[in-house]
Amino acid sequence: ESITMQEDAGFYFSTNIPTENIMKNPSFQARRDDILIVTYPKSGTHWMQAIVNLMVENVDDLSERYKQYQYHLEYTPHQVMDNAPSPRVICTHLPFERIPLDFLREKSRIVLCVRNPRDVAVSYFRFCANLKDIDYRGSFGGFFNLFITGKLPYNSWFDHVFSWLKVARSGRQNIHVVRYEDLKQGFLSTVSDLACYLKVDTSPELLEKIQKRTSFENMKLSLSDYLREMSINGQSVIFRKGTVGDWRNYFSPAQVTMLEDVMEEWGLHKNKSISFYDE
Ligand code: A3P
């Protein structure tokens, strides 16, 4: 059981991504007021993109601007981003080493969103099984092995997350880390910290409205035809369940232990699913 993808020097990426878009892109022009949302796939990218766009615009509805300008570093033609108004909110799944250097030179704002790797594994599995482009037919067990060994687009969760956490912790770049689980459990305080980092002025009232507007149910309702058409089952490939802990419905005891062993190798504490990156 495997997934068809491209490879560059051990880095795996989807077949529909132009190779130059995963190569540091020396010609990409970042802007100081860009906001780069960094995630491993299935860690809440769309949710964070909606939240940040609303915060930046200081509005409580997903405006035309949001619908038109959902930039993805690997997919959106660079010419489109070059001509886009500031501030641009751009998402990427690239590891730190493959980010266009200009983001670092410009000291653009960078938000790293992380989610419990166990839930990410399940979400990624369901995504690959439901996405027409990938059409993964294997079992969760087969997918779990790909997840553990990093034989997936964007390699392993660990390679990705630690490439960024290392930099965030070193203080080389001012990177703001947000956990999916914290957004779920303490939206308002998590998002007001984010507003501080982004230096956007938002009232507590507006943040409450943004919370309602970006709830799982509301975002699922405003699903675009584009996302629907990408799916095999006619449901959304993105808005599936939106909960914490769905992994318990999928993992065998042996898989729990296997993932815990890998987490421990990376310095993550055992049995602490919530503080999975705290040390
Ligand atoms: P599940 O598959 O566990 O449901 P990404 O946007 O990075 O592809 O992440 C998709 C995951 O985020 C999916 O997880 C999806 O349901 C969840 N998600 C998307 N919007 C959400 C929201 N508004 N609130 C909570 N979870 C959300």
From TrEMBL:
GO terms of molecular function: sulfotransferase activity
The keyword Transferase appears for this protein: yes
Keyword annotations of the record: Transferase
Sulfotransferase domain mapped to chain residues: 33-266
The keyword Transferase is annotated on this UniProt entry: yes
Family as reported in the entry's similarity comment: Belongs to the sulfotransferase 1 family.
Name under which the protein is recorded: Sulfotransferase domain-containing protein
Originating species: Elysia chlorotica
Full-sequence range covered: 64 to 342 of 342
